[in-house]
What does this fold into?
Amino acid sequence: MSFPMQGIRQKRVEQFKQLMQKRGLRAILISGNDNFHFFTNIQLSSHYWERPFVLVIPAEGEPFALINKVSENGVLMQIERQISWISDVSFYSELPRIEDRGYTVFQFTRMLQEKLEAAELDCGAIGYDSKTVHLSELAALIPRIALTSVAADLKPLRWVKHPEEIAILQATASLSDWMMTKIRENLTPGRGLQELSAHVTALGMEEAGRRHPGSNFQVLKLLTLSGPVSSSTDGDGAPTGATLDRNSPIVCVIVPRMNGYSTEIHRTFFCGKPTADQKALFETALQLNESALSQTYAKNRVSKIDEAVQMTAFKAGHYKYLVHRAGHGIGITTHEYPEDVPFNPRSIQDNEVFSHEPGLYVKDIGGFRIGDIVVAQDKPKILTSMPKTLADCTLD
It folds into this structure.
């Protein structure tokens, strides 16, 4: 199954055009990986500090990019397959060449200067998302430009998802549900947790190949934690050799990504009968999850999500174990904007997408966390559907 993305591309162009018109900018320069991907649909594997890059988005004319030659073949293949939303890309070398000489990494600023001058972008206001050393050098080389940050302006552009984006997120969430069922089927006391995670990751890759050949499916994280270790969101730093404990909560987190869009799912399982205290903590965690989801609808206040979760934990008598925000935005990155859900007073917009994963973390006992993906519409639209009641998550 292929996913149409031309509507997303058109939305991006319109968003940046409107931003430049609002701020009176002649262009925007992008040097952050996430924002680069957001506009181009190209995922760069290198970080700026190692192999600098820049995307130039003019108010008038076509965008163009400067990228390291190491990425040349991959980028050109994405352009040929029409995955990329830009086609004008220039490459520089990270080593001095005997022949076919061109720009090197140490001439990156000069290369950018000449490209801007050729595009007649050597004067006026230019926005940027990241203040880099090359931009500082550029300001000295082209004194007629006025550089101004648009980092804060770019965040809201990533809140609301296009229907084509939601379709990809839905398909990815469906795969995460499928993988979580495989986790449940393979929970056996004494089994190695890293081996279990690797096994289900392989199964997930195979299933994604059947459902969506030609897409770019990845598993960014598959983490299974058992016992007191699960009271930490990422374990105790010593996972190798850890095994599944029959008498403790088992927290599993799956973070898949497809065609540049991430989802995640969290479930807590028991392999054997939980104690009365464990049951109570699990039921509270489930209530926290449902409280967060219930508040995720268009026009509600963002911070109402955490308010509801905190009140639920307080009423249940488990408030001291609540140390984690209810959730965050998700999409281009796993932790997407808004990242400040507990403190954000604005209204939720239609088709914002959140990951809600409130949990209880009890040292020496374990974690109790249930998380889902939800689209804010007139009513919450939950994309993940793996069963999550205590009965569903208990294996006798």
Remarks:
- The two ends are 38 Å apart (CA to CA).
- The longest helix spans residues 163-185.
